[in-house]
Amino acid sequence: VGSRDARIEESPPGAEIAIAFTMAAAGGTRLVGLVQWWSVLVSTVAVFGIARRLGVDVRPAALAALCVPALPIVALQAPTALNDVVVGALVAVAVYFLLDPRTAGTGLACTATAALVATKMTSLVAIVVLGAVALVGNTGRRRLSRFAAVALGALIGASWLVIAPAGYVGA
């Protein structure tokens, strides 16, 4: 009572729930970096998929994807319990699904966006980028539905603000 830390109490819990699960399943902290390593793999595959959806040949797309794990921030944070690589992976996944020509991409982009917003406050900056991708990367009616998916995903992901105890958020 009376002890407060805004870094903990006002941050979205998304990635921390996954990290807590790995610690509970392992009975300690030896698998704490598993969430980040998994996110590196997801980012790598998503970058390859984005490049292919943009019409890039297989070899240059593979080279772009293989550069992801070599990025300094990715290489430094992958073995840690931080969640910045998770945010990057969710942005890449959302972009991948926003560029999906099939109808299923709309719901999956919404889901990825919701998970993104529920992971870290800085992910709200990415919402602008995702909205732009939805508008520029699609045509006709799909453009509006993809933009709406980003907006709905942001609202769903931000629901942790409503769930969080009222005394913690914004005080």
How would you describe this protein?
The protein is mainly α and about 170 residues long. The chain has ten helices and no strands. Helix 6 runs antiparallel to helix 7. The longest helix is centred in the N-terminal third of the chain and has 20 residues, at about 35-55. The relative contact order is 0.14.
Q: Kindly state the percentage of residues in helix.
A: 55-70%
What sort of overall outline do the alpha carbons produce when their principal axes are compared? globular
Structure classification = mainly alpha
- Estimate the mean pLDDT confidence: 87
Give the number of helices: 10
In terms of DSSP E residues, the strand content is under 5%
Largest sheet: none
Number of strands: 0
What Rg, in angstroms, do the CA atoms define? Answer: 17 Å
What is the first-to-last residue Cα distance? 14 Å
Question: SSE string, helix = H, strand = E?
Answer: HHHHHHHHHH
Spans of at least 5 consecutive residues with low confidence: none
Describe what is shown at a glance.
With 171 residues, the protein is mainly α.
List strands and helices in order, with pairings.
Elements (H helix, E strand, L loop, with lengths): L5 H4 L4 H13 L7 H20 L4 H10 L4 H6 L6 H15 L5 H14 L6 H13 L3 H18 L2 H4 L8
